[in-house]
Amino acid sequence: MALGSKILLVAGLLTLVACPAEAQTAAPSGAMLGAACVLCHGPDSAGAGAVPGLKGHNKDYLVVMMKAFRSGERPATVMGRVAKGFSDAEIDAVSAYYAGLK
Ligand code: HEC
Fold first, then answer.
1. pLDDT tens-digit readout, 1-59
2. Is the CB–ligand 1 distance for residue 38 below 6 Å?
3. Staple 26 to which of 14, 20, 61, 81, CB 3.0 to 4.6 Å?
């Protein structure tokens, strides 16, 4: 099972046992966070125009890039702003999700 699916499964199980207020603090779902990326990165995440694709990269690459965008270490047009909204745990979850896409 892909790591993204495992995270989804865990998040789903947590939601089942938690009351709604606690569900908000459950592990972030990579698939849910990743839904915000397809607008620019293409519906199948293979890239769109000048925007590079996300699938096919390994998880470590995606984590390092997201953190570099967030810190400003990697110059960006929009990714710096996108990445600033992500905690380390969320970067981990969304990177695992995209690395698991085939
Ligand atoms: C508003 C459009 C937009 C959104 C939304 C967006 N991206 Fe991007 N992304 C870009 C652009 C444009 C680039 C190229 C770098 C730049 O100029 O910002 C990029 C580059 C990247 C790269 C580097 C890829 C490489 O080949 O090195 C990663 C990783 C990435 N985005 C991840 C994400 C993730 C994860 C999300 C969703 C949480 C996301 N992006 C949402 C536009 C977007």
1. 566 666 555 555 555 545 455 555 677 899 999 999 999 999 888 999 999 999 889 99
2. no
3. 14
15: burial class by Cβ within 10 Å (0-12, 13-18, 19+)?
middle
Distance 2 CA to ligand 1 centre (A): 22
SS3 35: coil
Amino acid (1-letter code) at residue 102: K
Tell me the torsion sign for CA atoms 53, 55, 57, 63. Answer: positive
Length of the chain: 102
How far apart, in whole angstroms, are the C-alpha atoms of residue 15 and residue 24? Answer: 9
Residue with the smallest CA separation from ligand 1 atom 34 is 37
The domain locations on the chain are: 3-100
Domain 3-100 belongs in CATH node 1.10.760.10: yes
What number is the average pLDDT over the span 65-81? 98
